[in-house]
Amino acid sequence: MTFKVIVCIKQVPDTNDIRWTKNNTIQREGLDSIINPYDLSAVQLAKNIKFLNEDTEISVVTMGPMQAQDILKQAIAMGCDKAFLLSDKRFSGADTLATAYTLSQFVKSIIPDFNLIICGQQAVDGDTAQTPSSLAEKLGIEQLTNVIALKSFNKDNSVWIKNTCDYMQEVRLPHPALIAASANNTEILPDIKGYMKAQNTVINVLDADDINANEQCIGLKGSPTQVKNAYRPHIERNTELIENASLEDYTHFIINEINKCKANND
Amino acid sequence: MTRNVLIYIELNNKKPAKVSLEIISHALKNFADTNINGVIACDENTMSEAVNELKNIGLHKLYILKDNLFDIHNTCVYSRVLERFIKENKPDILLMGATCDGRDLAPRLASKLNIGLTADCTDLQIDENGHLLATRPTYGGKMMATIISKTLPNFATVRSGAFKLNIQKSSQEAEIIEITPDITGLCSLMEIVYSENKPPVEDWTCAEIIIAGGLGLKTKENFDLIYKLAEYLDAKPAASRAAVEQGWAPQSIQVGQTGSSVSPKLYIAFGISGAMQHMVGITNADKIIAINTDTSAPIMKSADIALAADAAAVLNSLLKTCTK
After folding, report:
1. Complex confidence, ipTM
2. From the CA of B175, how many Å to the nearest CA of chain A?
3. CATH number, domain B209-323
4. Cβ contact, residue pair B307, A167, below 8 Å
5. Going residue by residue through chain A (266 aa), what tens digit of pLDDT does each one get?
6. Residues 157-176 of A with CB under 8 A from B
7. Do residue B142 and residue A26 have CB atoms under 8 angstroms apart?
8. Do B107 and A130 make contact, defined as CB atoms within 8 angstroms?
9. Strands A3-8 and A56-63
């Protein structure tokens, strides 16, 4: 039996290259879109499984506009086998709950006999880290987050290394389960075979009806959270600028401030 | 109408997590017309110590979900127990710390309850209708978004260090309500093969004085003086993301959106340009002094005092003067 892995990826703006409009909104035109860096480590973990178990099929899925086909092609070039794009106007405006529901409907409708789902822990645009746990709940499977590596694998279960700020664990998880990968510095270089495969792979585009989604649970309608106000942060203080002083004066000024601070504490 | 706020208080080594106490501090100070209640999940051994810490700090009620299953965090188990508790208890607002375990648990719980969740907030307010306004940085700290939720309870996790810790003993004791949840059928298939706790990192984020360095220090040797000066002044050292990326300092002392939020009385920034992702980590500093040759650097317009000078030279001079 083929071992079926689903990798969920997201197209994100390159947050290192954000420009602002005059109205203090983010300028979306001309903004480079990339695969969310955390998702690359999800792809890598899936490839590690395939390395250990040749009879593995990696399906990659994303939700987004038709342009998101680009990152799916990239994922194919990196070694994934099948690609699915969930694209429908009705999906737009989804928060993490609606996104998790949509992904869960895709899994239930298209690959119900999956063995493992691997996600990037969070996306660099929102940084919420909510979708993986929320998706695991919608599918009724166990989740393991903060995963940095695969330790061992057999078809029934796998052992993963979980690394959090407080502890490091090796955890055995029976399949099916969901893994969230927390490394964001993985690099996967596609090879020429991968590129050729990407060119020849058909991307399956699915809408809400294809995945039997309830319209009340998707997109803006299915999203309980709404952005009330978005703004460019202002860190406002009345700044006193001191220029052209001697090194000695600067030094004594700072020492004086430190002493004032310490005196206040006593 | 008085709103009920429920704070899930995470326990580490039988003690409430710092971020949980920060949330309680903020809620007691800022949420008008509310009852601030807490809930903990613990085993028999942990209970009395945790209750002692929490019973007279201003909480209205303290719920204790007690079972020996709760000796170690497990999201599958905790989320099911909390789901039932929340459905019975019906709080208006639900808050928890955005710790590693909290960020694992909260979305699972929200998904179970089919409610909205706002992650990693740095500010929380309640509007005139009693709804939670949850503000969080997004796009790598380049933008702030205030999020509201249509569902109850309004649910948010809070970033560690975002609020000032200010726990005061209260003469009024919380009403303690012990609950033994029905755990029939609750088990996790997960097997922990090996576990190792990391040595507790000294919490430097609530230091009174923080001495921070950035790329403007130019070399690792200059950055090392940050440690020396901090040690001499009984302050804590910190670094900008750029300095960490250069390998001058470990990520554990990074300040900003992808590092820690700090709230010192005095923050002295040597050669830090003050990109937004850095500044969001120091909004709670009482006083910020910036030293930078480039007067057009953002920090020189958002510090309290901006000294137009070479950061490395001033740092050297300070160290010499102090240690003389």
Report:
1. 0.89
2. 31
3. 3.40.50.1220
4. no
5. 999 999 999 999 876 666 666 665 666 666 778 999 999 999 999 999 999 999 999 999 999 999 999 999 999 999 999 999 999 999 999 999 999 999 999 999 999 999 999 999 999 888 889 999 999 999 999 999 999 999 999 999 999 999 987 889 999 999 999 999 998 778 888 889 999 999 999 999 999 999 999 999 999 999 999 999 888 776 678 899 999 999 999 999 999 999 999 887 65
6. 159, 164-174
7. yes
8. yes
9. parallel
Q: In the CATH scheme, what is the code of domain A3-217?
A: 3.40.50.620
**Both tokens assigned to B223:** 């950055």
User: In a 3-state reduction of DSSP, which class is residue A37?
Assistant: helix
What is the number of other CB atoms lying within 10 angstroms of the CB of residue B233?
20
CA angle A99, A204, A137 (to 5 degrees): 30
For the beta sheet containing A177-181, the strands, ordered from the edge strand earlier in sequence to the opposite edge, are A203-206, A82-86, A56-63, A3-8, A116-120, A177-181, A142-153, A157-163, A167-174, B191-197
Q: List the domain boundaries for chain A.
A: 3-217
> Which chain B residue has its CA at the smallest distance from A126's CA?
B138
**Residues B161, A102: Cα–Cα separation, whole Å:** 34
* Three-state DSSP class for residue A141: coil
Flag if B149 and A238 touch (Cβ within 8 Å): no
How buried is A19 (Cβ within 10 angstroms: 0-12 exposed, 13-18 middle, 19+ buried)?
exposed
Residue of A nearest to B258 (CA): A127
In CATH, the number for domain B3-179 is: 3.40.50.620
> Could you give the residue ranges of the DSSP H alpha helices within chain A?
37-52, 69-77, 96-110, 131-139, 192-200, 247-265
